[in-house]
Amino acid sequence: MPDDFVIARNPEPDSTLPYLLRIPLGDGILLKAKETWPRTAKVYCHRFFDGWPEEVEIVERVGVRSCVRRGAAIDLVLDRGRENRSQFVITTIRGGRQAVFWQTSRTVKQARPRVAVSTARALGVRDLTIVVDSGERYAWKFGEQQATTRRERLPAGDYGVLDEAGRVIAAVERKSPQDLVGSMTSGKLKFQLTELASLPHAAVVVEASYGRLLQHEHVRTAVIADGLAEAQVAFPAVPIVFCDNRKLAQEWSYRFLAGAVVAAAADDFGATAVADLTPSAPMSPLPTPEPSAAELRAWAIAQGHEISPKGRIPAEIRAAWAATNATAGRSAGAQSSSSS
Question: Which GO terms describe its biological process (predicted)?
Fold first, then answer.
């Protein structure tokens, strides 16, 4: 379970970025920000070099459902109903400087850091080399796409792209309707999906529509539909994509493989950039959060204290709760010391 997302006052009095953000990714990331949420526009953030201050005024503390780095972005999902999804995008701006922008779906449609988008090339990728498995018969030529091909044995799939070290970044398994049904009924498809699932990105591309696939002469429709459903549920990371014909299947695969190359470059950049955001000083743990009013009332009733069902929590109830938890903490520490 990730730690809480915390917004505090920036302890630097002269800073133009008055807030301090504590992001629970890895060992923790600290950023200075101008706003407490990107409500109307993207919020510029800057790295906070010092560790978490010992004395800091906390503005807001929210539980986190998910905090994951994807490429050059950190996706943050908070445990609340509104203003819960946001993203920190790490990019390079004019002059080669690294910058971080905090955004939501309302403030930006989509971010593609460090990517030059082109309508001619897939995602602007130049000199895309697609490796065709040496066992592939009647291979796609990608003659209408801006890509070159070479033959080589692939560990999985029929078409793939490699990184500079020769590792497969992504692969596509090409299927005709007859081949897909045959491999599914024989059990071969599950082994192929297992191999594809071991790759960073993979897909099965069918040179037919879903409706055309179900019109098989010898295999019942229910058997095909159920088999495909079972395979997709068992291997959710390997989508089975239905393209109407060979031409569209080739085009989809070209775009997919180019997208994987872009994603790999963004992931390398993001890993380095996020590592640079980690504070030089170690992050001190956050204190135990204060209980809500409902939690305090429930605790007080369980302990036999008299408390009204509404209104403010009396100071003596808060003091009793604090004293009880402090005693429990000292007891746990004493037991840990004696056992060691």
Answer: DNA metabolic process
- The fold adopted by the segment(s) 122-274 is Rossmann fold (3.40.50)
Name the average pLDDT for the chain: 87
For the stretch 85-131, pLDDT in tens is: 999 999 988 887 889 999 998 887 544 444 333 345 566 677 899 99
pLDDT < 70 stretches in the chain: 1-2, 109-124, 326-340
What are the tokens at 79?
């445990």
Return the domain boundaries, the chain. Answer: 5-111, 122-274, 293-332
Q: Are 25 and 274 in contact (CB under 8 A)?
A: yes
